[in-house]
Each structure stands twice: as C-alpha cells, then as structure tokens.
C-alpha cells in the first residue's frame, strides 16, 4: 500500500513538473502576410520571433514557462480581416499581449474591435500614421516606430535638399496614406516647395491611368508615391513608367522593398529616393544586427528591429508584471522601457530576469531606439534616406532634422 501511495505521489509530481515545463505564455503577432506589404512582413515577423527565441533559450519567462507567438493575418487593407484576426488572438488564443498590427488601418481596427475591449496591450512596430496617437485606447496601444508626422517632415526635407521644389503626389486612400501625405505636403510647402497636385487613389485597383493623367498634366517631373510596394504603389509606378511622364520617383517606408525593384525593373527605378524609420547608433543596434545575421535575418529589413524591440519589451513587461494576466501590463511596459533603471540591451534576458527578481528597476535600450513612450504611446525616432542603386534599396544614412 505504501509503495502504491509512493508511486502515485511520484507520478503526480512528475505530471506536475511536466505541466510546469510545458506551461506557455502567449504573445500574438498580427501582420500583413497577404496584401499590400506581404513581401515586407516575413522579416518583421522573424524579428519578433528572434526575441522569443532568445528568451526561451535563456530560461523562458515567468519562472521557466515557454514564450510562444501565434500569428494572424490582417491582409493589411481589410478591416474585417484585421478585426477577426485580433478577435482570435484575444478571445481564442487568449494572448497576454500583441505585437502588431503593421498597417495603420489594421492596427486601428484590431485595437478598437478586440484589443481595447479585451484589455490587451498592443505594440505596433510599423503603424506610422498620426491617427494611432488619437485612439481612445486606455493606454493599451503603443508603437516602437515614430509617427509619420515626423517621417513626412523628413521626406519633405530630403526632397527639397535634392533641389526638387515642384512635385505631384499620389497616396493610398487610408489612414497611412492620408496622414503621410498631409505631413509631407505641409512640410514641403513650408520649406518653399510646391505640390502641384495631391491625389488619393484606392488600393488594389488594376488601373491608375486616370489619376496619372491628372498628375502628369501639372508638368511636374517628380512623382511622390505614398502607398504599398506590393499593391497600388507598384501598379502606379509601372503605369507611370509606361506613360513616360516622370523622370524622378519618390516614396516612403511602405515602398521600400527590393520586391518593388524586381517587379518594376532595376533600370526603371534606378535613383528612386525614399525614407524609412531607422535605428539610431546605439549599443543595442549592433547587438541586434549580429544576432539577426546569425539567425539568417536581414537586420536592415524595414521594421525588423522595431518588431524585435516590440516583442522583447512586451516580454520584459510580462516578467515585471509577475504573471501572464493582462491587467497591469501597460504600467509595467512603461516601467521597463523608461529611465531610470539599469540598462538592458537586446538579448540580455537572463540579466533582466535577475534584476526584476531582485526588485531592481530596469530600462530597455533597444535595437531601434530607446523607446521612451510619451503619453500617447509614441516614441521619438530617426529617419533613413534610401536610394535605389544597382537593383536594390541602399541606405544613405540619417536624414538630419
């Protein structure tokens, strides 16, 4: 009898240990795996997954639990798809937090319809439109990328610095396109330039020749396209080239993908200029670059570093919060991302866990910035000049304010 009881106790203990070892903490990822940025999304997702991998390799989260990252496709442009994907994360997967979404409209739809009602912290590494700052979000929506209010200003400065003061603009008719167009136009005209025409266009159409006819009628040689590399932006550029009416092309972060150059032709886009949020020269930047290259990820891929930071920050906040519960996570996120505190760099998970356990304040200094969130959940940032050379987008350094 005693042996039987002992065997049962050992079996129960083994089951308990197995359950603890297999316990999971879920952080969801929402991205545009199909649609307007489908070629840009994979390295962004891999950037976030790199943080998850490092955390699990260094002992896991909350006393050895495994951090997992289920994903959902927002399609970038479909608000219903974004809402449905977010609903699955919040109410079926029961995630503690979400990295994403990427496109601004997707983030707003996901937040309003699932994230905010469910009390789930969302950290977007790519939603740049000013509209994100205006969400009534109960301090639940953050981003590790600067607002387009800043990128639009820097793009305008870059164009003016190139001696271009007369342009035609077309933008995708959504929160991203409108916000970026407004910021660019205001700064460009304040700097002495003239926007000859500024036309919205709908995404996912096969023909933009009517809009291009109006834009070319202005006599502008430079066409600014504020759209997506895999949908309308690509079609607009192809049809503009076929019409032969512009000699210089300009874009922003949604257009910065080598898939765009491959689709249109390296000779056609040679010399195209664009901007994208970048990573300042911080110690964490080099650490991320080394880890990403070792993992087979292009560290310079658009928003990959921002996605890594979003995932690492969320994990730090969960550890700081002491549980996988959603309540209190927003305050914990602000705590681990802000001074004062002992500096934590990318990959320093074990160090962070030890400090948190000891009750020591920490301050994460990331791969793409310091991420001192303001009251709207926004961060300052830097913008990088990109130029198409020899068939690919090449970084030319920071655009200085």
TrEMBL record:
<dbReference type="InterPro" id="IPR000709">
    <property type="entry name" value="Leu_Ile_Val-bd"/>
</dbReference>
<keyword id="KW-0813">Transport</keyword>
<keyword id="KW-0732">Signal</keyword>
<feature type="domain" description="Leucine-binding protein">
    <location>
        <begin position="24"/>
        <end position="337"/>
    </location>
</feature>
<protein>
    <submittedName>
        <fullName>ABC transporter substrate-binding protein</fullName>
    </submittedName>
</protein>
<keyword id="KW-0029">Amino-acid transport</keyword>
<comment type="similarity">
    <text>Belongs to the leucine-binding protein family.</text>
</comment>
<dbReference type="InterPro" id="IPR028082">
    <property type="entry name" value="Peripla_BP_I"/>
</dbReference>
<dbReference type="InterPro" id="IPR028081">
    <property type="entry name" value="Leu-bd"/>
</dbReference>
<dbReference type="InterPro" id="IPR051010">
    <property type="entry name" value="BCAA_transport"/>
</dbReference>
<feature type="signal peptide">
    <location>
        <begin position="1"/>
        <end position="23"/>
    </location>
</feature>
<dbReference type="Pfam" id="PF13458">
    <property type="entry name" value="Peripla_BP_6"/>
</dbReference>
């Amino acid at each position: 009898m005693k042996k039987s009881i002992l065997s049962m106790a050992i079996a129960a203990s083994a089951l308990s240990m197995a359950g603890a070892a297999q316990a999971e903490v879920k952080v969801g990822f929402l991205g545009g795996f199909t649609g307007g940025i489908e070629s840009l999304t994979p390295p962004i997702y891999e950037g976030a997954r790199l943080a998850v991998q490092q955390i699990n390799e260094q002992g896991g989260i909350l006393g050895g639990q495994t951090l997992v990252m289920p994903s959902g496709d927002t399609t970038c442009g479909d608000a219903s798809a974004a809402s449905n994907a977010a609903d699955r994360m919040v109410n079926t997967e029961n995630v503690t937090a979400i990295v994403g979404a990427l496109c601004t409209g997707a983030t707003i739809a996901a937040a309003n319809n699932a994230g905010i009602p469910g009390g789930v912290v969302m950290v977007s590494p790519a939603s740049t439109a000013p509209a994100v700052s205006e969400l009534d979000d109960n301090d639940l929506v953050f981003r590790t990328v600067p607002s387009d209010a800043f990128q639009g200003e820097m793009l305008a400065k870059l164009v003016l610095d190139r001696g271009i003061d007369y342009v035609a603009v077309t933008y995708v008719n959504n929160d991203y396109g409108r916000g970026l167009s407004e910021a660019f136009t205001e700064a460009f005209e304040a700097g002495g330039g003239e926007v000859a025409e500024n036309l919205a266009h709908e995404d996912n159409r096969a023909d933009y020749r009517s809009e291009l006819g109006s834009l070319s009628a202005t006599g502008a040689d430079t066409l600014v396209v504020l759209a997506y590399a895999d949908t309308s932006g690509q079609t607009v550029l192809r049809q503009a080239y076929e019409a032969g009416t512009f000699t210089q092309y300009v874009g922003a972060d949604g257009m910065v993908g080598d898939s765009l150059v491959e689709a249109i032709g390296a000779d056609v886009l040679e010399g195209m200029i664009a901007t994208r949020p970048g990573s300042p020269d911080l110690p964490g930047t080099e650490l991320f670059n080394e880890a990403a290259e070792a993992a087979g990820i292009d560290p310079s891929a658009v928003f990959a570093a921002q996605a890594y930071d979003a995932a690492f920050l969320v994990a730090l906040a969960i550890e700081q919060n002491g549980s996988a519960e959603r309540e209190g996570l927003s305050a914990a996120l602000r705590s681990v991302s802000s001074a004062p505190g002992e500096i934590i760099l990318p990959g320093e998970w074990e160090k962070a866990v030890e400090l948190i356990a000891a009750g020591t304040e920490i301050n994460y200094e990331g791969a793409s910035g310091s991420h001192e969130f303001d009251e709207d959940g926004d961060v300052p940032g830097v913008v990088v000049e990109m130029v198409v050379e020899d068939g690919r987008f090449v970084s030319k350094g920071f655009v200085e304010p």
